Predict the structure of GNAT family N-acetyltransferase.
Amino acid sequence: MVLELRKSVISEAKAFVEMECSHDTKGFVIPYSLEKHASLIESNDVIYLSLYYENELSGFIILSQESQDVVEFRRIVVASKGKGLGQLAIKEMEQYCAENLNCSKVWLDVFESNSRGIYIYKKLGYTQFKEAFDEGKKLLFMEKTF
Protein backbone atom coordinates (compact mmCIF):
# COMPACT_ATOMS: atom_id res chain seq x y z
CA MET A 1 0.00 0.00 0.00
CA VAL A 2 1.55 3.29 -1.09
CA LEU A 3 0.42 6.45 0.64
CA GLU A 4 1.92 9.81 -0.25
CA LEU A 5 1.96 12.89 1.98
CA ARG A 6 1.90 16.20 0.12
CA LYS A 7 1.81 19.78 1.35
CA SER A 8 -1.84 20.80 1.17
CA VAL A 9 -3.11 23.51 -1.17
CA ILE A 10 -6.14 25.78 -0.80
CA SER A 11 -8.03 24.03 -3.60
CA GLU A 12 -8.24 20.94 -1.34
CA ALA A 13 -9.98 22.80 1.52
CA LYS A 14 -13.51 22.06 0.26
CA ALA A 15 -12.76 18.33 0.28
CA PHE A 16 -11.39 18.65 3.84
CA VAL A 17 -14.68 20.22 5.01
CA GLU A 18 -16.65 17.41 3.36
CA MET A 19 -14.45 14.75 5.00
CA GLU A 20 -14.85 16.35 8.44
CA CYS A 21 -18.63 16.46 8.07
CA SER A 22 -19.05 12.82 7.03
CA HIS A 23 -21.22 10.80 9.41
CA ASP A 24 -18.34 8.62 10.62
CA THR A 25 -16.01 11.56 11.34
CA LYS A 26 -18.03 14.51 12.68
CA GLY A 27 -18.41 12.98 16.15
CA PHE A 28 -14.65 12.95 16.66
CA VAL A 29 -13.55 16.35 15.35
CA ILE A 30 -14.88 19.86 15.62
CA PRO A 31 -15.23 20.72 11.91
CA TYR A 32 -13.58 23.83 10.53
CA SER A 33 -15.22 26.12 8.01
CA LEU A 34 -13.92 26.38 4.46
CA GLU A 35 -12.53 29.81 5.32
CA LYS A 36 -10.70 28.53 8.40
CA HIS A 37 -9.08 25.66 6.49
CA ALA A 38 -8.06 28.04 3.70
CA SER A 39 -6.50 30.56 6.08
CA LEU A 40 -4.70 27.86 8.07
CA ILE A 41 -3.31 26.24 4.90
CA GLU A 42 -1.76 29.61 4.00
CA SER A 43 -0.58 30.27 7.55
CA ASN A 44 2.95 29.66 8.78
CA ASP A 45 1.61 28.54 12.16
CA VAL A 46 0.39 25.11 11.05
CA ILE A 47 1.37 22.41 8.58
CA TYR A 48 -1.29 20.75 6.46
CA LEU A 49 -0.40 17.46 4.83
CA SER A 50 -2.73 15.88 2.28
CA LEU A 51 -2.96 12.10 2.11
CA TYR A 52 -2.95 10.63 -1.38
CA TYR A 53 -3.70 6.96 -1.88
CA GLU A 54 -3.58 5.68 -5.46
CA ASN A 55 -3.25 9.34 -6.58
CA GLU A 56 -6.59 10.26 -4.97
CA LEU A 57 -7.03 12.70 -2.09
CA SER A 58 -7.90 10.39 0.79
CA GLY A 59 -7.49 12.54 3.90
CA PHE A 60 -5.38 15.14 5.63
CA ILE A 61 -3.28 15.82 8.72
CA ILE A 62 -2.82 19.10 10.61
CA LEU A 63 0.38 19.67 12.60
CA SER A 64 1.72 22.56 14.66
CA GLN A 65 5.39 22.81 15.61
CA GLU A 66 5.35 23.95 19.24
CA SER A 67 9.09 24.08 19.80
CA GLN A 68 12.24 23.01 18.05
CA ASP A 69 11.66 19.33 18.78
CA VAL A 70 7.95 19.00 19.70
CA VAL A 71 5.02 18.82 17.27
CA GLU A 72 1.33 18.89 18.11
CA PHE A 73 -0.59 16.38 15.97
CA ARG A 74 -3.80 18.39 15.76
CA ARG A 75 -5.92 16.35 13.42
CA ILE A 76 -6.11 13.41 11.09
CA VAL A 77 -9.12 12.77 8.89
CA VAL A 78 -9.24 9.79 6.55
CA ALA A 79 -12.05 9.54 4.02
CA SER A 80 -12.14 5.75 3.82
CA LYS A 81 -11.92 4.00 7.17
CA GLY A 82 -11.02 0.41 7.98
CA LYS A 83 -8.33 0.02 5.31
CA GLY A 84 -5.27 0.88 7.41
CA LEU A 85 -4.76 4.27 5.74
CA GLY A 86 -4.89 6.12 9.06
CA GLN A 87 -2.19 3.98 10.65
CA LEU A 88 -0.01 4.25 7.58
CA ALA A 89 -0.57 8.03 7.47
CA ILE A 90 0.47 8.40 11.11
CA LYS A 91 3.68 6.45 10.48
CA GLU A 92 4.42 8.63 7.43
CA MET A 93 3.64 11.77 9.47
CA GLU A 94 6.07 10.69 12.19
CA GLN A 95 8.77 10.15 9.58
CA TYR A 96 7.96 13.58 8.08
CA CYS A 97 8.26 15.19 11.54
CA ALA A 98 11.60 13.51 12.25
CA GLU A 99 13.13 14.21 8.82
CA ASN A 100 11.67 17.61 7.91
CA LEU A 101 10.98 19.24 11.27
CA ASN A 102 13.81 17.62 13.29
CA CYS A 103 11.26 16.72 15.92
CA SER A 104 11.67 13.97 18.50
CA LYS A 105 8.25 14.13 20.16
CA VAL A 106 4.65 14.28 18.91
CA TRP A 107 1.63 14.82 21.14
CA LEU A 108 -2.11 14.83 20.47
CA ASP A 109 -5.47 14.98 22.18
CA VAL A 110 -8.33 12.63 21.44
CA PHE A 111 -11.88 12.45 22.74
CA GLU A 112 -12.32 9.52 25.12
CA SER A 113 -15.29 8.42 23.00
CA ASN A 114 -12.99 7.87 19.99
CA SER A 115 -12.13 4.27 20.83
CA ARG A 116 -10.88 3.51 17.31
CA GLY A 117 -8.43 6.42 17.44
CA ILE A 118 -7.23 5.57 20.94
CA TYR A 119 -6.68 1.95 19.94
CA ILE A 120 -4.62 2.99 16.91
CA TYR A 121 -2.56 5.55 18.84
CA LYS A 122 -1.72 2.99 21.55
CA LYS A 123 -0.91 0.37 18.91
CA LEU A 124 1.54 2.84 17.33
CA GLY A 125 3.28 3.56 20.66
CA TYR A 126 1.50 6.66 21.98
CA THR A 127 1.02 6.85 25.75
CA GLN A 128 -1.41 8.94 27.75
CA PHE A 129 0.05 11.72 29.89
CA LYS A 130 -3.00 13.70 31.07
CA GLU A 131 -6.76 14.24 30.82
CA ALA A 132 -8.94 17.32 30.46
CA PHE A 133 -12.50 18.25 29.56
CA ASP A 134 -13.68 20.26 26.55
CA GLU A 135 -17.35 21.26 26.49
CA GLY A 136 -18.18 18.37 28.80
CA LYS A 137 -16.30 15.79 26.75
CA LYS A 138 -13.27 14.03 28.20
CA LEU A 139 -10.03 14.52 26.27
CA LEU A 140 -7.04 12.22 26.60
CA PHE A 141 -3.60 13.66 25.88
CA MET A 142 -1.12 11.21 24.36
CA GLU A 143 2.50 11.47 23.26
CA LYS A 144 5.22 9.56 21.51
CA THR A 145 8.96 10.17 21.61
CA PHE A 146 11.24 8.90 18.87
